[in-house]
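Hi L.,

You mentioned the student needs an example of a multi-chain input paired with its predicted structure. This one should do, with 686 residues in total across all chains.
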Amino acid sequence: MADAREDILRAIRAGLKLARLPDVPAERPSYDVPRTVGSVAEFVGELERLSGHVIRVASPADAAQAVVALCTGRGWKQVWAWSWDEIACPGLAEVLNAAHIEAVHGGDPADLERLPVGITGADAALAESGTLILRSGAGRSPLISLLPPVHIALLEVQRIFPDLHTYLNSLPDPVAHIRAASNLVLISGPSRTADIEQVLTLGVHGPRELIVVLWG
Amino acid sequence: MSLPLPHKPFEDRLAEALANPQRLAAIGRAAMRFYEGRVAAMDTLPDAEAIRDLARAIRAHTIAHLDEYLQRFEANVQAAGGHVHWAHDAVEACSIVLRIAQENAVRRVVKSKSMVSEEISLNAALEQAGLEVVETDLGEYIAQLGHDHPSHIVAPVLHLTRQEVGRIFSERLAVPYTDEIAALNAIARRALREKFLKADMGISGCNFAVAETGTVCIVTNEGNGRMVTTLPRVHVALMGMERIVPTLQDLAVMLQLLPRSATGQKLTAYTSLLTGPRRPDEPHGPQETHVVILDNGRSRALAGDLAEILYCIRCGACLNVCPVYRTIGGHAYGSVYSGPVGSVLSPILGGVAAFADLPQASTLCGACHDICPVRIDLPLLLLRLRREVAREGYTPRWLQVGIRGYTAVARRAGHFALAARLASWLTRLMGGGWFNGQLPGPLGAWTRSRAFPPFVRRTFQQRWKERHRG
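Structure written out for the whole complex:
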C-alpha cells in the first residue's frame, strides 16, 4: 500500500496527542557521559578476558615478523587479507612474500572462506570493552574478519580510545564517517554462543580465534 | 494489529509448563545466571544510575518525536542508497518482504534473530510461497529444526537440554547422535555455513535505527548477524517503529546498557552498523538493502496510558528477574513476547481478549521496574492493563460476581464490620480443626500446599474502638 507511510505517520501524530509519556525532557537531551579512563593495559586485559590474544611489539617491522611467525608456525601457506595500504603496516607485504606466504585480497567468498586465516588492520580500538572497530571500504572486505577460523588484526597502539563516546568524539565528522561505509563493525573477542545449556563455545559462526598484533 | 495467538487457555499452558520440573529448573538457573551477569556488568559503568536516567530521557524524547525521527531515518537510509517500506500490520509486512524476494528472484533466505519476524510469523509466509527460510542464530536454528518456539528473548532454547538438542540434530540433520556441546556447535557451523554462502537474501532484525545516519544497528555474538547482512545480495532489516535513536551519541549510550542488561557483556562480540548497500568501491556486501518499518499496534499503544512500553529496548532483563517467569518459563505466556514486558506488549499487539490472563501473571513485586535499564514502570502498566481487562469484561465470571459481592459489603461500615466478625468466626472454626486448614470442594486447590490462615479473633475495627475508648 503506497499510503501506509502517510497512514502510520498520521496515526503516530494522533497517538502522540493522547500519549501518556512519562519523563519527556523539555529539550533534546544533551550530555557528557562519564568517561572511562582507558589504557593499553585495559584494552589488553579486556580482550584477553574475552578469549582474544594480544601480541605486543614495538614497531611495524616487528608486527610483520609476528604475523609471519604465526603463519609459518601453523603451516599457513595462503592468507586472506585487506589490501596492504589499508592494513597500513609497512613491510608486511615484503616479509610475507619472502616467507612464500601468498596473500589473497579478493574473490568469491565461497572460495575464500576455505582460507585458514584473515588478516586486517583496524580503524580503532576501545579499551573499556576490548573492542576493535573495522570499517568497510575499498580493499577492506568485512568478510575477512568473519569467515576464516582465525582473525589476525594489526593495530597501532595510538588507535586505542577509552570507549565508544571518546572514539566518536575524536572524529572530525562522525556522521559523515559512519555514512561513508556500508558496514562498520565493533568486534569484541571471537565469535561466541552459549545457546546450548549456557555453556560458552567459541567460533560457532565467525572466527574461533582472534589475535591482535599491537604495535607502537 | 496482530500477533500469533495462543492455542490453549492459560491454565493449560501453566499446567504443561509445571509438569516439566527439569525444564523449569534449567530456566530458573539460566535466568539467575543472566541476572548475576547483568549486575556485575552494570557495576563496571562509571555511573550506571546516571546513564540509565539519560537513556530513559533519550527514549522518552525519541518517542515524543517519533514521527520526525522516523522521517529523518527514512531520508538518510534513502540517501545512502537503501529502500524503506512501511507496514501497518503483520500481513502487510510479510507481503512486502515476499515482494522484495520475488523481485530479486530469491529462493533461499537466511535469517538472524528478529523478534519482529516472530511477531509477524514471517517464516510461515515465506515458506508458503515456496522459499527456503533458515534460522541461523544457533538457538533459533535448534528451535526451527525441532519445530519448537523460542522461550526467551535473548536465549531462545534455554529450556532444552544438550541431550534434546543432540536428538534434534541427529534426527533432522542425519548426523550421528552426540550430546557434546562443542560437537553440536561444530555441526551447526558446518550446516549453516553452507546456507550462508548459497543464500540470495538475508533477513535481520534491528536493535537500533540511527536517525541522523540512516544506520541499522544489530548486536550479536555468534557472527550470524554479520553473515546474514553481508553475504547474500539482498538484505532486509525488520524494525518495530519505536527502535529509533536520534544520534550516534545516543546510540553509544544505548550500547552501554543493552548488552550489559541482556547478557552481562560490555559489548556483544559483534555490533554492526549497517548503512545502505555496498558502495561501488567495496569488495563485498549486499547490493540491495531494505528496511521494513512496522507499526502492528504500536501507534495504538502510543495513544494512551500504556505508551511507556515503547521505551523498551528488548534486553530481556525483566524476564530474568521476574519470579513468575522464573517459575513458569517463557512458553506458558503463549506469546512471542514473554515475561513482564510480554505481559504488557502481548495484549497491546495481539488484543486484550487473547491475552487477558497475562497482566495477572505478575506478583507486582516491582523487580522488573528496578532492573529495567530505561526504568519502565512495568507494574504500573500491568495494573492499567488489569483495569482494561476488567473494563472490557474479560475478567472470569466468578471473580466478577465475587468482586461485586465484596463491593456491596465493603461500601457500608456496618456490613463490613459484621462480615469481618463473621469471617473471623468462620475461618477460626475451619482453621481450628474442623477442616484442619484445608478448604472444602474446589476451594481445596488453593490450600493443597498451604494451610488456610484463620482471621484473628478481634477485628481491627473492634480493637481500634477499644483503644480509643480507653
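You could point out the following to them. The longest strand of chain B covers residues 234-240. The CA atoms of residues 89 and 296 of chain B lie 4 Å apart.

Best wishes,
N.
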